[in-house]
Amino acid sequence: MSDDFYKEHIIDHYKNPRNFGQLEKADYSWKEFNSLCGDLISIQINTKKEDGNERVSEVKFLGSGCAISMASASLLTEKIRDMTLNEVGKIGKDNVLKLLGIDLSPARLKCALLSLDALKHALVEGKNGETDNN
Amino acid sequence: MIDELKIRQDFPIFKNLPDLVYLDSTATSLKPKQVINKMLEYYEQYSANIFRGIYKLSQKATDEYELVRQKVTEFINGNSSSEVVFVRNCTEAINLVAYAWGENNLKVNDEIWSTEMEHHSNLIPWQNLAKKKNLNLQFLQFNRINGELELEKLATLTDKTKLLAITHVSNVLGTINPIKHIVQQVKEKNPQCLVLVDGAQAVPHLKVDVKDLGADFYTFSAHKMLGPTGVGILWAKQEILDSMPPFLFGGEMIKEVQLNESTYTDIPHRFEAGTPDIGGVIGLGAAIDYLNNINMEEVRVHEIKITDYALRQLEHLANVTIYGPKEAEKRGGVIAFNVDGIHAHDLAQVLDKDNVCIRSGHHCAMPLHTALGITASARASFYIYNTLEDVDKLVEGIKKAQKIFINL
After folding, report:
1. Which of B118, B166, B160, B111 lies closest to B138 in space, CA to CA?
2. Which of B98, B105, B285, B320 could bond to B68 as cystine, CB 3.0-4.6 Å?
3. What is the ipTM for the molecules in this complex?
């Protein structure tokens, strides 16, 4: 872990976020706010069935926020592609921090975990747009 | 003229953290040793409860506590110390009015007016009351360019308008609202409409005269004016305060208690149920002494000097947007801004590495940010202990962040 916050890969993911955009139709979706700063991330996921497992086939996110929240969303959406939902469910705080490769204060931790929160909510509560959250 | 270097010697935090560049006094001010020592004196020499004992210590504590009520009254030029209620913070002062006055005086379809530039503390209590009692909320907008309130709408105020809840100084834009003029306009249209002024960002920085302003309620916090956290002040016109039932019930606020019924004591103690923050109130007294010693006019002159310098330095930077009035004379010592391509949180983080403390986010004013079409801003604010060098360090830090984020 580095105390140098804005390492090259974070700035890169912030300026050129991967999977940034919107799906026409999503199996799962969710919008999550960071009440501390008003930042917002919405995430959309499509899945496919393979060998009896449901896997992430497509994922997109939209949002506005700081470098940490945007970079972590970009990194996280890269990571979960092709993962089973079971595997995605096991992703925790430490995995996200490892992706970022930096230490964070509690206040910034919220920024880093905003996309993970959105992702978890999407898979648990955001199926097929049944809820009004998007 | 304020000698800020001399003033800084009164603030122990600068001895402990010599490199500190504190630019977040709008959130809470630093505390001088005079305030800290005065509170220590209470805890070490007469830390008894008030209004309880016959013994000397309790009497001493009571006297010191009540003396501060007098100091507050004089500081804001109130009529009588019975108009001054001590609560926990400015938010609680506003809630007290919403509960004790609002619940009992407003009915279905009455209107509460406020503004787009309020801190959440002067918005949510009214939203909640409006929901409960089916009231209508109306808002004055502010000019997106110069940050000033658009007052034309006041001409449409009606007999149904029962309250205008308005901030004296915006905690984001810095705009100093023309409260006296606004109160006159309101009272001309509807003398029954009361005006509550959130003075959290005004009392620490300007000479406030509640009689001259003509408002009915005026609220502020001790911790933003060199005092401790845990103490807020509600000032209200005597006849209005006197007509209000208690907000919190229990010890200290009663006259006679029977098992099934009680009578309540007079103002202001009717609104101070339970043991208050005695040490905190006594500390506030020392903060008022400190500010009086400097003189509030001098405080204002110093803040204009720093704010004017900061505005000019920030204007010179490329890709920086400043919100609110462009002239230092029209604003308090607070500047909210954004740097293109850098989120406020990231800017604050880069600055923090060099011990420059600024605020980032929505500063408890989300509707204001929505009106500006942004979700967050960076905010630097100034007080008596800030120097022009502090502003230079802020500017250096912004340039550093631009190097990291833009020129990579």
Report:
1. B111
2. B285
3. 0.82
